[in-house]
What we know:
Layout: E1 5-11, H1 16-19, H2 33-48, E2 55-58, H3 62-74, E3 82-84, H4 101-108, H5 110-118, H6 154-174, E4 178-183, H7 185-196, E5 214-218, E6 230-231, H8 234-245
Helix pairs in contact: 2-3, 4-5, 6-7
Bound molecules: 2-phosphoglyceric acid.
Amino acid sequence: MTAVGTLVLLRHGESTWNAQNLFTGWVDVPLSEDGEAEARRGGELLAANELLPDVLHTSLLRRAISTANISLDVAERHWIPVRRHWRLNERHYGALQGKNKKQTMETYGEEQFMLWRRSYDTPPPEIDPGDPYSQEGDPRYADLGDEMPRTECLKDVVARLLPYWESSVVPDLRAGRTVLVAAHGNSLRAMVKHLDGISDQDIASLNIPTGIPLRYDLDENLRPENPGGTYLDPEAAERAAASVASQGR
Ligand SMILES: O=C(O)[C@@H](CO)OP(=O)(O)O
């Protein structure tokens, strides 16, 4: 079967809050210097593999936007059309946004910490609208109304991501375009869960590394011909995914 579409998933490079081990979610933090370097490396990998995106989809958060800009600039694809949507945002981390991961684990214990961080359907407590890390009143979310989350578990992310996948990403894939999705650890875990048909249990142990393009060749049913996708730098991806898994320790 010939692949109908090529999808490239790119988690943003390290952010300043990744570097400080803080729960981030919808807080709009920038890339760290290392994160910018990862984004440049991501662009080099795209160019070296002749994997040149025709269209970009990003979240509304600058760590994903900047990563895509830097990578595409390096790959000489800075000019491609872009669509941005909140449905590609990171999982909203509720009241944990801005909290240190290690301290959270020490305060609540490893079981509760992992339940909030990786269980499929247990969201963290809701964020208070007056919390300094709440997005209440942020103009970019003015149209969300009742859909504005105050916390999310991965199941919630899957539910809000899939309408965008169907309405906006799938048509680009079906048109034969190479589609770059620049997003986040948990919004991409939601996408990979859908693509690979991963169970609610097994998704807990899947972690996506920062800054390494993950390629999927999709058949006409939009099922991966290469299940699990193919990282353009598999060794670096394995090391980096293990480091995401161990955050908090
Ligand atoms: O803090 C976050 O928003 C995410 C991604 O950095 O963290 P985690 O990997 O713990 O879900």
